[in-house]
Amino acid sequence: MANDAVEDPQAEQPAELPLSDVGLIGALARLLDEQMVKKVIKPRIDAPKVPLLKAYKGGQSELVVQIAGDIIGRYKVNLAQPKIVIDEDNEEALNKYADKHGGTKVVIQRDETWEKALLQFAEYDEDTGLIIDTRTGEVVPGLKYEQGGQPTGSLTWTWEKRDVGKKRLTRHYQEGSLNYLLTEAPELMAGPRPTAEDAQH
Q1: Which of 20, 151, 171, 185 holds its CA 20 to 30 A away from the CA of 193?
Q2: pLDDT tens for residues 44-95?
Q3: Do 90 and 138 sit in the same domain of this protein?
Q4: Are the beta carbons of 124 and 84 closer than 8 angstroms?
């Protein structure tokens, strides 16, 4: 597990370090992980979210990230899928339908399992605008259709061709192609530059 101690600490650290120093280094590494990753690095990872969601309103749903023509990966705006949901403004009608079809419990509330099944078998009729229970063919009151296609407020990142994008980015980083960007994000320069082997992990 990620928080478990390493079985052989000498395999990770030089033999001449006392165990107390190895422990101190481990504690410092945890602190840096918490401080750097959560507070500094994570906001940089999420930085494209707001501008890309704004750009979506103008018709852009994807951002292709590339360096010198090499595609690294893509950010894509996640879209809500159309679905049928409970119409809270007409819930009483659904309660009557649930009661008629065994979808209520003794506590006079709809059975959640029945409701989940109903939503799975409910279908929106484009012509009439009604919701049909495909198991019975009946119109189901108290449900409504929510149009999909609107941004959910989150993005999906995909590396180009699995690890190809990681390898390309590592190569450009090693060659110094990103130095102009790193002056704006100096926290990303801490530590040694990644090796080609790092890109495979």
Answers
A1: 20
A2: 788 888 888 888 888 888 888 888 888 888 888 888 888 888 888 888 899 8
A3: yes
A4: yes
Look at residue 137 and tell me if it is in a domain: yes
Taking the whole predicted model, whether its pTM rises above 0.90 is answered as no
Look-up of token digits 């009557």: 96
The dihedrals phi and psi of 162, each to the nearest 5 degrees, come to 60, -110
Query: What residue numbers bound the domain in which 19 lies?
Result: 1-46
Examine residue 161 and state whether it is found in any structural domain, yes or no: no
> Closest by alpha carbon to 77, among 113, 37, 50?
50
CA angle 64, 49, 52 (to 5 degrees): 55
Give Cβ neighbours of residue 14 (< 8 Å, ≥ 6 apart): none
- Residues of the chain with pLDDT > 90: what percent? 14
Residue 59 within any structural domain of the chain: no
- C-alpha dist (Å) from residue 47 to 44, 78, 160, 185: 5, 16, 19, 12
